[in-house]
C-alpha cells in the first residue's frame, strides 16, 4: 500500500499520522505530500491530517478545500479510492463536499483536548474492519470546532445506511447524534474528529487507534494482493 | 506621523521629549556623550528600547551574574535566544522562559498569545524544533468579573496560539492571590530539541554578508512595547493600547518550518527573532555579538501599512518576524525555502566592518549610531537596597498556630482553593498531545516527553511559590528551585538545568531591590547544590499597580532527563495493597502556607526552612529508588501538606488509602520541605526501606474508594470518599467561573 | 473601488452556541431586555469596480465565504469610496 | 421588539490575519479584483424596545460585545420587527 499524508500549510498532525502508518502498518510507502502536488493518483490511500490548515481562518477547512492538491484528492475519492480525514482533515472533507454536513464550534465554545470513549457503530467498513461493533475505544479528541451539524434528513440517511462509523459515548461537543465519524455513501471516504494516530501506544495512554490503520491496510491487501 | 512632523534633535533636548519614551535625564546626557552629538528622533528611539530594562537588564544584571550558568553539560548559557543543554547521543535540549505580563493585563488574549509566539521564536531561532510549551500564571482571586475575564482570555490566548502552531502545552502552574489583582503574570516557557550540529547563533558575522528579513510584514503594532513592559501599570495604561500586538499563529507555523529548513542550509550565518524592540534589538544585538556593524535600507522592509516612519519601523513589535544574516551570494537559497512556505523575504542590509548601525530611508541617512553604544554601553545601575521593616517583624513573630479542628472540613476547604484545585479546566483547552510524545500529561508533578528513537525522556516543571518569597525571599528562593527539582525527581528524572523568569515590582524601590537580591541569592545557592545551572531566563520588573508591587515572584522552569522510559513515575497510587511511605518529618512552620491563608486571609511569620544538603540527599535517594524499580508512585508534599498530597494520590483512581500518624495538625497540613509520599509494592517494601532509611511506613493503598487518616491510637482524623474529594477539587475552578456576581 | 459588505449567519434552525453564550452573558450583566442573539460574520471587501460585480460577489460567497450547508449570506455594495 | 445589528471590526492598523488569509484565497480562486479583506463580527440582538435603547446598546458593546482595545463597533437599530 502506498499512502499519502497531505501537508497543508498549517497542518500539524502530519508527522504523527505518518508515524502511525509507517510504524504500525505494513504500508510500503508513506509520503508526506505537499498541498501543491498536482496529483495523488499514484497512492492507494490518502490521509488528510489534523491541524489548522490556513490557520482555520474563516471556517475550519474552508480555505484548504481549494488547495491545489484537493482537485486530485476529490477526483480519487470519487473513483473509490480510500480517503481518510482526521480532525482538520474531516473538516476539509466536509467543506469539499465529499461528506455531508458541516462543523460548528463546540457547544461550550472551548477547545477540548482529552481522551474520550468512542463507540464503534459500524465495523463493516474498510476503516473499521478490525474493530467489533459496539466496542468502546479510548481515543483523544483535540478540537475547537467539532460540533457536527446536519439536517434531519441527512441524519436519517446516515443512520439508515450505516454511515455513522463512530459516536462519542458522552455529549462532548454538541454534535448531532453524538457523531464522531461518518463515511460517504460509497464507503471509501471517512471523516472523524477523534485522533486515532494519537492512540497507537500504551506508553502514550492507549493503542485503540491502531486497528483503524491496520483495517485500512488489510482492506487494501485483501483487494489488491489476492493474485500475487 | 510623517517624517517632517518629527521633533528635531534640538527639540528633543530642549523639551525633554526623551523622557516621554522612558529615557532619564542622565541617560540622555550619556547618549549625547557616546554619540558626540544630539540624537535625532529615530536614534533616541533606538536607545529608548535598547536601554530599557527589558533589553538591557540595567537593574538586574548584577543579580543575574550570581547564577551559576556553566557545567559540563551546558552547551550554551544565557546570552543567546535560549539555553542549550547536552542530553547525550549528539542531541541537546534548548529552552527559555519569557514574560508577557503587561501586554496580557491590557489585552489578555493577544497578550498571552503573542507571549507564546515570542518564546517559540526564541527556541526555533536556535535551530531547535519546539517540542513543548509550559506556562506559569498568576491572577487575583476569581471573585470579580474582571479577573475571570482575564483568566479565561489568557488561557484562551495560550491555547489559541500553541494549539495552532502544533506544539503541545504540557504543563505549567497557576496561583491566585490578591497581590496579582491589578497585575497578573503570564510567563511562557518553550523547550526545543536539536541535533547539536544544527545549533545556530544570533550573530551578524562576515563583513559583506546580507541581512535578510523573513516573515510577517511590519505594521505599527506594539511600538514601545519594550519600554511599556518596563513601566508600571497605572490608569493611563489604557491609553497605551495601540502597543498591543496581534498574533498570527498560522504565519508562525510557517516561519517555524522555514527557519528549521534554513538552519540546515550552509548559507545561514546567523539568525535571531525580532522580539521585544523588533528590528532594533535583533540588528543591534547580532552586530554586537559579532563585533560588526549593520547598514539597512528601511525602504526595503516589508510593510503592512503605508507611511511608516523609520522610528515606527525600527520600534515596531509586529510578530512572526526573523532577522537572518546570509552568506553573500547565497540569498536565493533562503528565498527558495521561504517561498515554499509562502513567506515574505527581503534583503534589507549588509554586514559592515564599522561597528555602526546605519539606517537609510528615502535616500537619507536617518540614524547612525555605534553599535556598542546601544548594547554594551547600556547603563547598569548599582541600586540601593534596604531590608524592609516587615521582614524582621515576620521573623520575630511568635509561631503561628492553626485554629483548625474539623480536619475533614479543612481538607475540603484546602482542595477547593483555586491554587490547589484541579486545573483541568485550563489544560483541557491546551493540545497537550500533538507530536505524540507526551508520556505524562498535565496533572502530575512534572510532564514527561519521550525522545523518539531513544529510550530516554525529558521531564519538565514550572514552579515558584511567591508567598514564601514575600515573607522570606532567601529561603523562598531556595524553595522555588528545590520544589522544581523535587517535581522532576518524582517523575523519575535527574534535574539538568533551569530557566527563570524574575517578576518583581520596581527595582528603584530599595526594599524591592533587597527582595530581588535575597531571592536570587537563595536561588543561586540552591542551583549550586543541585548542580542545575541557569541557562536562560527573563526579567520582568515594574509589576505594580498604582504604586503597589506584586509579591516578588521568581518562576523556575526546570528540565530533567529520564534515562530509561521505564523509570517514568507519576503521582497517583497504582494498586491496592501497596505500602505508603512518607519521607521527612513535619514541622510546625506555617508562614505562607495555604492553611494560614485560608484561616487568616493573609500570610505572616516564618516560612518552612530549606536544608539544601538534606534536600539534595533525599532527591538522590528517591531517584535511586525509582531507578531501582522500587517505586509505584511518587509525589512531593507541597501546598496544603500531607493531607492534600494524599488526596491527590487517590483522586481519579479507583483506590483509597488507610494511613495512621501522630495526632498533630502539622502532620496533616504543614508545608515542611523535602517531603514525599511514595507507594511501594509489598514485595519491594524491604528493599525500599533499606534504600531510604528515613522513609516511614504510614499505611496502605486500599481498594475501597475512601481516604482514611487516623491517629496511631486509631482515632479518626480524616475520612472522605475518594469521589467526594475529587468532586470538590475538580469543581472548584469551574464553579468560580460560573458564578455571575 | 467599492466596499462590499458581506453578512453571514447561521441558517434559521441551526443552533448557534456562540449567540447563546453571548445572550447568557448579557443577561448576567443585567441586560435582560435582550431576548435573542445571533453571532455572525461581517466581511468588508475592497473591490475594484467592474462588470458583473454582483454575480462575482455572489460566487465568492457561495464558493468560499459562506458555507451553504449551515449559513446564509447577504451583502450590500457601498458605492461611494470611503475617504 | 427591535432588531439591533452590531458590527465589530479590528481597529485600523491592527493585524487582521483572517482577512489576509481570505484575501489570498480569493486571489487564488481568480477574484483578483478584491484588494483587501477585513473579517469582523456581526451580531443580531432581539431587544425589547424601551428607554435608553441607544445608551444601553453602547454599554453592551463596550462591556462585552466588542473589545475596545483592538476593536471598533457600530450598530444600527431596525425598528420594524422582522417577519
Ligand atoms: N533571569 C535570568 N536568568 C538568566 N538569564 C537571563 C535572565 N534573564 C535574561 N537572561 C538571559 O539574558 C539574555 C537576554 O534575554 P532577553 O532579552 O529576554 O532575550 P530576548 O531578546 O530573546 O527577549 C537571554 O540569553 C536570557 O536567557
Ligand atoms: Mg527573543
UniProtKB/TrEMBL annotation, chain A:
Pfam families: GATase_5
The protein's Enzyme Commission number: 6.3.5.3, 3.5.1.2
Record-linked CDD domains: GATase1_FGAR_AT
A biological process term (GO) from this entry: 'de novo' IMP biosynthetic process
Catalytic activities: N(2)-formyl-N(1)-(5-phospho-beta-D-ribosyl)glycinamide + L-glutamine + ATP + H2O = 2-formamido-N(1)-(5-O-phospho-beta-D-ribosyl)acetamidine + L-glutamate + ADP + phosphate + H(+); L-glutamine + H2O = L-glutamate + NH4(+)
Stored SMART domains: GATase_5
Keyword flag Cytoplasm: yes
GO molecular function: ATP binding; glutaminase activity; phosphoribosylformylglycinamidine synthase activity
Pathway in which the depicted protein is active: Purine metabolism; IMP biosynthesis via de novo pathway; 5-amino-1-(5-phospho-D-ribosyl)imidazole from N(2)-formyl-N(1)-(5-phospho-D-ribosyl)glycinamide: step 1/2
Keyword field: ATP-binding, Cytoplasm, Glutamine amidotransferase, Hydrolase, Ligase, Nucleotide-binding, Purine biosynthesis
Residues forming the catalytic site: 87 (nucleophile), 195, 197
Subcellular location: Cytoplasm
NCBIfam families: FGAM_synth_I, PRK03619.1
Subunit structure: Part of the FGAM synthase complex composed of 1 PurL, 1 PurQ and 2 PurS subunits.
Function: Part of the phosphoribosylformylglycinamidine synthase complex involved in the purines biosynthetic pathway. Catalyzes the ATP-dependent conversion of formylglycinamide ribonucleotide (FGAR) and glutamine to yield formylglycinamidine ribonucleotide (FGAM) and glutamate. The FGAM synthase complex is composed of three subunits. PurQ produces an ammonia molecule by converting glutamine to glutamate. PurL transfers the ammonia molecule to FGAR to form FGAM in an ATP-dependent manner.
Protein name: Phosphoribosylformylglycinamidine synthase subunit PurQ
Name of the encoding gene: purQ
Automatic annotation (TrEMBL), chain B:
Residues reported in the UniProt entry to bind substrate: 99-102, 121, 245, 317-319, 540
Residues reported in the UniProt entry to bind Mg(2+) 2: 122, 273
The PurM-like N-terminal domain, residue ranges: 79-194, 443-562
Record has Ligase as a keyword: yes
Positions annotated to bind ATP: 57, 96, 500, 537
Keywords in alphabetical order: ATP-binding, Cytoplasm, Ligase, Magnesium, Metal-binding, Nucleotide-binding, Purine biosynthesis
SUPFAM superfamilies documented for this protein: PurM C-terminal domain-like, PurM N-terminal domain-like
Domain Phosphoribosylformylglycinamidine synthase linker: 12-58
Catalytic activity from the UniProt record: N(2)-formyl-N(1)-(5-phospho-beta-D-ribosyl)glycinamide + L-glutamine + ATP + H2O = 2-formamido-N(1)-(5-O-phospho-beta-D-ribosyl)acetamidine + L-glutamate + ADP + phosphate + H(+)
UniProt entry tagged with the keyword Nuclease: no
Pathway recorded for this protein: Purine metabolism; IMP biosynthesis via de novo pathway; 5-amino-1-(5-phospho-D-ribosyl)imidazole from N(2)-formyl-N(1)-(5-phospho-D-ribosyl)glycinamide: step 1/2
Gene Ontology cellular-component annotations: cytoplasm
GO biological process: 'de novo' IMP biosynthetic process
Residues that, per the record, bind Mg(2+) 1: 98, 538
EC number(s) recorded for this UniProt protein: 6.3.5.3
Pfam families: AIRS, AIRS_C, FGAR-AT_linker
Active site: 54, 100 (proton acceptor)
MF terms in GO: ATP binding; magnesium ion binding; phosphoribosylformylglycinamidine synthase activity
Domain of life: Bacteria
Similarity-based family: Belongs to the FGAMS family.
Subunit organization: Monomer. Part of the FGAM synthase complex composed of 1 PurL, 1 PurQ and 2 PurS subunits.
Role summary: Part of the phosphoribosylformylglycinamidine synthase complex involved in the purines biosynthetic pathway. Catalyzes the ATP-dependent conversion of formylglycinamide ribonucleotide (FGAR) and glutamine to yield formylglycinamidine ribonucleotide (FGAM) and glutamate. The FGAM synthase complex is composed of three subunits. PurQ produces an ammonia molecule by converting glutamine to glutamate. PurL transfers the ammonia molecule to FGAR to form FGAM in an ATP-dependent manner.
The name this protein goes by in its record: Phosphoribosylformylglycinamidine synthase subunit PurL
Organism, as annotated: Natribacillus halophilus
Automatic annotation (TrEMBL), chains C, D:
Gene name, Swiss-Prot/TrEMBL: purS
Catalyzed reaction equations: N(2)-formyl-N(1)-(5-phospho-beta-D-ribosyl)glycinamide + L-glutamine + ATP + H2O = 2-formamido-N(1)-(5-O-phospho-beta-D-ribosyl)acetamidine + L-glutamate + ADP + phosphate + H(+)
Biological process per Gene Ontology, one example term: 'de novo' IMP biosynthetic process
EC class of the enzyme, as a word: ligase
Pathway annotation from the record: Purine metabolism; IMP biosynthesis via de novo pathway; 5-amino-1-(5-phospho-D-ribosyl)imidazole from N(2)-formyl-N(1)-(5-phospho-D-ribosyl)glycinamide: step 1/2
Cellular localisation: Cytoplasm
Protein name: Phosphoribosylformylglycinamidine synthase subunit PurS
Superkingdom of this protein's organism: Bacteria
The enzyme's E.C. designation: 6.3.5.3
GO CC, alphabetical: cytoplasm
Protein function: Part of the phosphoribosylformylglycinamidine synthase complex involved in the purines biosynthetic pathway. Catalyzes the ATP-dependent conversion of formylglycinamide ribonucleotide (FGAR) and glutamine to yield formylglycinamidine ribonucleotide (FGAM) and glutamate. The FGAM synthase complex is composed of three subunits. PurQ produces an ammonia molecule by converting glutamine to glutamate. PurL transfers the ammonia molecule to FGAR to form FGAM in an ATP-dependent manner.
Organism of provenance: Natribacillus halophilus
UniProt xrefs under Pfam families: PurS (PF02700)
InterPro entries assigned to the protein according to its UniProt record, in alphabetical order: PurS (IPR003850), PurS-like_sf (IPR036604)
Subunit structure: Part of the FGAM synthase complex composed of 1 PurL, 1 PurQ and 2 PurS subunits.
Keywords (A to Z) from UniProt: ATP-binding, Cytoplasm, Ligase, Nucleotide-binding, Purine biosynthesis
Assigned protein family: Belongs to the PurS family.
GO-annotated molecular function: ATP binding; phosphoribosylformylglycinamidine synthase activity
